[in-house]
């Protein structure tokens, strides 16, 4: 541990990573616009305030130059795991944080942080998804509607069990007025909502909800990049999950 980090290994230590890593939570404040709505430019001040208040973050250490939404940060070292991105475009707030990619021993960081955000933003639609690939992909997906209706699904897509699913995807879609008949046959087949949990594309379902409710990102939009010190608990869990020695 150092004065600016809770890591117990050097910041240049190589970590496990792949191009399929994903760990994102998105909030849409009311009123929810139509899917064709044009999002406002990025608000850097609001992004920093959101970063400082996010439960996985102990402190914001540095604000780096903003990056386009079309780019993605990939972690190669422990130091890279200190980088988070936040986009604030009008009613849409989106955070990507490697701390959300922790699933060992039944941990549910996405559900935990969506639940915490639900307390702060009770009128928001919140969608969270993490799909870290540490040799085998594990997914954790949460959809929380403003009225509290929630869907949670977590497991390994390569295996039939163990899976945990709480909530009904069709109830979520009906509540938002999303008609599966409006999707292409290919999209309905990819979603596979009536299949066993390991065959259902839960991340695609969350994306469908966000696109329907107005999160249509454009290449010219930017997002903030922050170097943070994660909390001691999250740092410990991340070091356990991301290290090659695990």
What does the model show?
The protein is α+β, with helices and mostly antiparallel strands and 246 residues long. The chain contains 6 helices and 9 strands. The chain has helices at 44-53, 109-120, 169-176, 185-191, 202-212, 232-242, and strands spanning 23-28, 57-68, 83-89, 92-96, 125-130, 139-144, 150-155, 163-166, 222-230. A 9-stranded antiparallel β-sheet has the order 2-9-3-4-1-5-6-7-8, sandwiched between helices. A hairpin with a 5-residue loop joins strand 6 and strand 7 (150-155).
What structural class results from the helix and strand content?
A: alpha+beta
Describe the strand arrangement of the main beta sheet, using strand numbers: 2-9-3-4-1-5-6-7-8
Mean pLDDT level: 90
**Separation, N- and C-terminal Cα atoms:** 19 Å
In short:
Helices cover 24% and strands 25% of the residues.
Strand and helix map with partners:
Elements: E1 23-28, H1 44-53, E2 57-68, E3 83-89, E4 92-96, H2 109-120, E5 125-130, E6 139-144, E7 150-155, E8 163-166, H3 169-176, H4 185-191, H5 202-212, E9 222-230, H6 232-242
Antiparallel strand pairs: 1-4, 1-5, 2-9, 3-4, 3-9, 5-6, 6-7, 7-8
Describe the structure using short key phrases.
246 residues; nine-stranded antiparallel β-sheet; 6 helices; 25% strand; globular
């Amino acid at each position: 541990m150092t004065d600016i980090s809770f890591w117990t290994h050097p910041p240049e230590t190589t970590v496990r990573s792949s191009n399929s890593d994903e760990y994102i939570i998105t909030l849409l404040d009311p009123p929810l616009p139509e899917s064709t709505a044009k999002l406002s430019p990025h608000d850097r001040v609001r992004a920093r305030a959101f970063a400082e208040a996010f439960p996985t973050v102990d402190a914001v250490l540095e604000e780096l130059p903003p990056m386009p939404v079309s780019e993605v940060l990939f972690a190669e070292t422990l130091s890279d795991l200190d980088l988070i991105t936040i986009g604030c475009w009008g009613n849409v707030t989106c955070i990507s944080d490697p701390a959300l990619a922790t699933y060992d021993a039944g941990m549910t960081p996405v559900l935990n942080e969506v639940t915490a955000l639900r307390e702060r933003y009770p009128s928001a639609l919140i969608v969270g998804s993490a799909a870290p690939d540490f040799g085998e992909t594990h997914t954790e997906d949460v959809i929380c509607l403003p009225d509290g209706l929630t869907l949670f699904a977590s497991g390994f897509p390569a295996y039939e069990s163990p899976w945990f699913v709480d909530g009904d995807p069709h109830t979520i879609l009906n509540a938002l007025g999303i008609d599966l008949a409006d999707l292409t046959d290919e999209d309905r087949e990819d979603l596979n909502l009536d299949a066993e949990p390991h065959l259902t594309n839960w991340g695609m379902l969350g994306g469908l909800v966000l696109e329907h409710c107005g999160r249509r990102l454009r290449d010219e939009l930017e997002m903030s990049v922050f170097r943070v010190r994660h909390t001691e608990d999250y740092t410990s869990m991340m070091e356990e999950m991301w290290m090659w020695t695990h």
